[in-house]
From TrEMBL:
Keywords: DNA damage, DNA repair, Methyltransferase, Transferase. It comes from Eremococcus coleocola ACS-139-V-Col8. Its EC number is 2.1.1.63. This is methylated-DNA--[protein]-cysteine S-methyltransferase. NCBIfam families: ogt (TIGR00589).
């Protein structure tokens, strides 16, 4: 059975949906009216995400479920290969997955990523280095890139 845990976070409330043994989604929410039930897994997720935001963590050690289409999973897997502190453009990601004409579809897959920060969509930028949309908001994307110190024109 899925559970939801809510934690205070610099960009609002952090909602972590999880099962007994894996994270299903992580999202910023403005408000929450349901019941929050924390566990050792959700607490560990919150700790790791907080450490990441503080620049103390570069990798996550959390079990999670990638739930999406085959194309989305291909994009998300490519994002996991972008090293900490580096960025790729949507075009570069499309080329990496062998579909150079799928730039907009790559952007859509990033938008549909349910695992905020775990799957590092924040490391994907526009072709001129501009920050495009991000599920946590463009300010959060900018802040995450600043924490990582990427070598880009961001």
């Amino acid at each position: 059975m899925n559970q939801i845990a809510i934690y205070p976070f610099p960009y609002g409330l952090l909602q972590i949906e999880y099962t007994e043994d894996q994270i299903l989604s992580i999202a910023n929410v403005d408000n929450f009216d349901g019941s929050s039930q924390t566990s050792s897994l959700s607490d560990q997720a919150f700790i790791e995400l907080s450490e990441f935001m503080e620049g103390k963590r570069k990798e996550f050690n959390l079990p999670y479920l990638l739930d999406g289409t085959d194309f989305q999973k291909k994009v998300w897997s490519a994002l996991l290969d972008i090293p900490y502190g580096q960025t790729k453009t949507y075009q570069e990601v499309a080329e990496i997955i062998g579909q150079p004409n799928a730039v907009r579809a790559v952007g859509a897959a990033c938008r549909d990523n349910k695992l905020l920060m775990l799957i590092p969509c924040h490391r994907v930028v526009g072709s001129n280095g501009d920050l495009k949309g991000y599920a946590g908001g463009v300010q959060m994307k900018s802040d995450l890139l600043a924490i990582e110190g990427p070598k880009c024109k961001c």
